[in-house]
Amino acid sequence: MASSFFRTGKKIIAIGRNYAEHAKELGNVVPKEPFFFLKPTTSYVANGGKIEIPRGVVAHHEIELGVVIGKGGRDIPESEADFHVAGYTLAIDMTARNMQDEVKKRGLPWTAAKGFDTFTPVGHFIPKSAVHDPHNLKIWLKINDEFRQNGTTSDMLFRIPQLIEHVSSIMALEEGDVILTGTPSGVGPIQPGDAITAELSEPAGTEPLATLNFLAVQREGGYAFQP
Amino acid sequence: MASSFFRTGKKIIAIGRNYAEHAKELGNVVPKEPFFFLKPTTSYVANGGKIEIPRGVVAHHEIELGVVIGKGGRDIPESEADFHVAGYTLAIDMTARNMQDEVKKRGLPWTAAKGFDTFTPVGHFIPKSAVHDPHNLKIWLKINDEFRQNGTTSDMLFRIPQLIEHVSSIMALEEGDVILTGTPSGVGPIQPGDAITAELSEPAGTEPLATLNFLAVQREGGYAFQP
Ligand SMILES: [Mg+2]
Ligand SMILES: [Mg+2]
Ligand SMILES: [Mg+2]
């Protein structure tokens, strides 16, 4: 079931640089076609949980709209993409930014920098029927009650049907897979002790579609990054 | 069940440059600690199947010993790693080499270059009890009956317990996860129409532990790489 993606999903496909302002803030150019990386589903942590920051790691928040796949498929054309979407979720694509900077320089995979346990804090499943237009949603993230990211999904460079067409032309999608659609500008570090809140909502200020609450803590043991 | 990893496993963790001769042949230095990337399980294709080469892609074979995780865990010390191994498998880490060269230059993820459908041809589950010593196995790959790779797992730079300790210090391992342990030298392109065979065996020429047979074909439709 797509609604149990947290438990049963096999992949998390995360799109890079899908908001022009965010590409700019990291000194990157806007891509000509979408690109993506995989995060392991072991990086999920459910709403209310703790985000663990590994030793030596500068951990950045990236708030993102997640698309939950319902019906799997391969070579899905843009025009049929909506049929494969079961719903949405709100997620944070946590990133070990100093590790990522290093592997980018050396031409190495992004996997570890993006894949630590608890590096994909995520909310509940939002059925498609509850969302008026996924490309017109307010999305924000606060640290200790201060806005850090405050954007709208209308700023996506590649829209959801294009992302589904692109990804499924390379790798088949399956029920429960989640596509993280990229982050608006304002990314930055979180520190142990920080309270992270985030929200996804329709523009006409009704009840939010999702509200996230996480506490950042220092990871005990595990990998230590030494630059 | 670990033995059904093909159907139920969630991640494929592939180690890079774990044989000195292979690192050298691609002009890379030997890493100081293991590094890895994820392949989606949608890239599995079972023995006897077809390896599809996407348009514009130079697809290289990398024959690898796969370790199938039985008992999951996090922060698994080297000394306890064997307890988490259920068995082994023989797999080919297919790689879109020209795409990989391009993303390495640009500091982008390896994911698409490694993650196409059918890019992880794989054999059956080999229970741990059937293998005398995983670090002393002959491993070879032939194209149209000619040897291309012919190595021994005794040449691994980082051994299986070290790999399990390293990976699990970053991301938790789960039952059915597969760790591909890197490839010996001799990687190179396969062409549509090529017959690929591969074998894993004990050094004292008894029955092979695994024999793979795949046919390479041109992928119809899907992504086309334009350098
Ligand atoms: Mg992101
Ligand atoms: Mg995966
Ligand atoms: Mg490999």
Automatic annotation (TrEMBL), chains A, B:
Where is each Fumarylacetoacetase-like C-terminal domain found?
11-201
Give the record's GO biological process terms: carboxylic acid metabolic process
Under the cellular component aspect of Gene Ontology, which terms does the record hold? Answer: mitochondrion
Q: Which SUPFAM superfamilies match?
A: FAH (SSF56529)
Q: Name one Pfam family in it.
A: FAA_hydrolase
One Gene Ontology term of the molecular function aspect:
metal ion binding
Respond yes or no to whether keyword Metal-binding is given for this record: yes
Assigned keywords, A-Z: Metal-binding
**PANTHER family this protein is in?**
ACYLPYRUVASE, ACYLPYRUVASE FAHD1, MITOCHONDRIAL
What's this protein's family per the entry? Belongs to the FAH family.
Q: What name goes with this protein?
A: Fumarylacetoacetase-like C-terminal domain-containing protein
